[in-house]
Specification:
The protein has one domain: MetI-like fold (Orthogonal Bundle), CATH 1.10.3720. It contains twelve helices and no strands.
Length: 267
């Protein structure tokens, strides 16, 4: 027992050190992208020789970039709504399933392990076999498929902390199962639903593989636009757009924290 107590602080220090290394590795690209976004140079140079906000001005004044940002936002919003509804419904449904729950859960998580290229090709061929033509609608559905498992996992984790006795008590008081779900269970996991919706939107907004293969010509989403622009010119505008995406992610996370904190105070 004494040996375990002596080993525990050493193990925690190693874990903290590894965590710091991983965090630095993940944040290193930001330390490069953000300064380059404020560069006055005409090409990607690090560290920047001069500082300026010219590239943010050019991006926000360029109709092509604005159209790509708006298109990505609209598709991501639609996919987020579908994924949030589907993932939340699946979490509540599988909570009530007794037989075959493991198989159904595996099926729900399948989009996380299927390569996105395979999913894009499958969607394209499926729409083609049905006599249609892949486009923005197909892209929206594909991104919703990718985001649904994320929503499901978050909501299922929230439901794991909800005592099933609360639902049984509500049913014994005369509530039907839809009423018990909407008035008892759903309010208890609304924080998980909001958080999962934020994650789903970020995932869909930044998704590139499906967008590249399913977007119609001339209707590029933001990730596709960045990819095409990077292949043509090494302009700091790419870093500026990437910085805007990072800022959007920070704002979304901040809104999520404010919503969940406010709800917690109300309770």
């Amino acid at each position: 027992m004494t040996d375990l107590r002596r080993a525990a602080p050493r193990t925690s220090r190693i874990a903290v050190a590894l965590g710091v290394v991983v965090a630095l590795f993940l944040l290193a690209p930001l330390a490069v992208v953000l300064p380059v976004a404020f560069s006055a140079d005409s090409f990607l140079v690090f560290p920047p020789q001069q500082w300026s906000t010219r590239w943010f001005t050019e991006v926000l004044a360029d109709p092509a970039w604005l159209e790509a940002i708006g298109l990505s936002a609209r598709i991501a919003a639609g996919a987020t709504v579908l994924a949030t509804v589907a993932g939340t419904a699946a979490a509540f449904a599988l909570r009530r399933v007794r037989r075959g729950r493991r198989a159904l859960r595996t099926l729900m998580l399948a989009p996380l392990v299927v390569p996105q290229l395979v999913l894009a090709l499958g969607l394209y061929l499926a729409v083609d076999d049905l006599g249609g033509r892949a486009g923005l609608g197909t892209l929206l559905v594909g991104q919703a498929v990718l985001a649904t498992p994320v929503v499901y996992l978050a909501v299922a984790a929230g439901l794991a902390g909800v005592d099933p006795a609360l639902t049984r008590a509500a049913r014994s008081l005369g509530h039907t199962w839809p009423s018990a779900l909407l008035r008892v269970e759903l309010p208890l996991v609304v924080r998980s639903v909001v958080g999962s919706a934020v994650l789903a939107f970020g995932l869909c907004f930044d998704e590139s593989v499906l967008a590249y293969y399913l977007s119609p010509p001339g209707r590029e989403t933001l990730p596709t636009r960045i990819w095409l622009d990077a292949g043509q010119s090494a302009s700091p505008a790419i870093a500026a757009v990437s910085s805007l995406v990072i800022g959007l992610a920070v704002v979304l996370l901040g809104v999520s924290v404010l919503v969940t904190t406010r709800r917690k105070r109300v309770r």
